[in-house]
Amino acid sequence: MSEASKKYPKGHFSGKWMAIGTAIFAGLGIPISVATGNQGLIGIGPAIGVVMGTAIGQSIEKSMRKKA
User: Fold this and answer.
1) Is 22 a member of any domain?
2) CA distance 17 to 51
């Protein structure tokens, strides 16, 4: 078993970066919904954050597995 897998459980970086991405992009939906006049777009900011954060987390996990 590698040192990286002992130190961080599988999915650690994906979850961490998903939360960071959601927090960063959470306020993005409000200006978009005001600009377009469509209140249904308020949720697009956190959705973008989840996608971006998961992508970053997966790439970090992939690089950690290669190092191990």
Assistant:
1) yes
2) 10
Do 25 and 46 touch, CB atoms closer than 8 A? yes
Calpha distance 45→55 (Å, rounded): 16
Comparing CA positions, the residue from 66, 65, 55 lying closest to residue 10 is: 65
The range of the structural domain enclosing residue 38 comes to: 14-67
Is 0.70 topped by the overall pTM?
yes
**Rounded to 5, what percent of the chain is helix, strand, coil?**
85, 0, 15
The number of residues in the chain equals 68
Give the count of domains, the chain: 1
Read off the pLDDT band of 8 (50, 70, 90).
Answer: confident
Q: Which residues contact 66 (CB under 8 A, 6 or more apart)?
A: none
